[in-house]
Structures are given as structure tokens and as C-alpha cells.
Fold:
Amino acid sequence: MMNEPNLFVICLNAFVAVLALLSALALAMRLLIAAFPARAGQAPAAAGTGARGGAGTTPVNAAASGSPAATSVDAAMVAAISAAAQAVFPAACVARIDVADSAPANAGKDAKGTP
Structure:
């Protein structure tokens, strides 16, 4: 007569295997980051901007606000917005993407508009 496999032991083994694999990948990432640091004049890429930093961004409405850094949209973001618009409205075409400020215009002011 064969012993039946214990579901708890199987799940525990799978959890330990995944944890070990993710730990090994995290260690490999740390070693790669330590081996290939960012260049002195190059700022680290922010989340969502891609590995190339500003080189892969498309300026959007740069004339509307004075800061070109605040008005750049990553190419992947443009593709995602276009795909989402196509999924909801199949005949739609994204003509312009406006970048909103992260802070409201009246942040830190009272109802009269004074700080």
C-alpha cells in the first residue's frame, strides 16, 4: 500500500522552492547593480521611465508648462493609453495626452487662496 501524498507538505515544498528562487534572483540583481553602477552624470531611472531615462520619453504639451521634465510621457505609457482607448472605443484615436500636476494648484492654501 502506497502512502498518500500530504497536500500540506507539497504546498510547503512549493512555497520554499519559490522563496529560494526569488531570493536567488534578488541576489543576482544586487550583484548586477553592484557590478554595473550608474554613470556619474546619469540620474537613476525612475519607475515607469524605462532604462534609458529621458531618452525614451516623448514630450507632451511642453509649451503648456515651463518644466519639460514634468511634461514628458514615456513611450510605453503612450502605447498603454492608446491600447486602453482602443479596447473601450474601437474607432478611437488618441490625439493628445495632457500630463496633470501631482499636487493641486491650491495645495497649502486656505479657501481665500492665501498661504
Summary: The two ends are 81 Å apart (CA to CA). Confidence is low (pLDDT under 50) at residues 48-70.
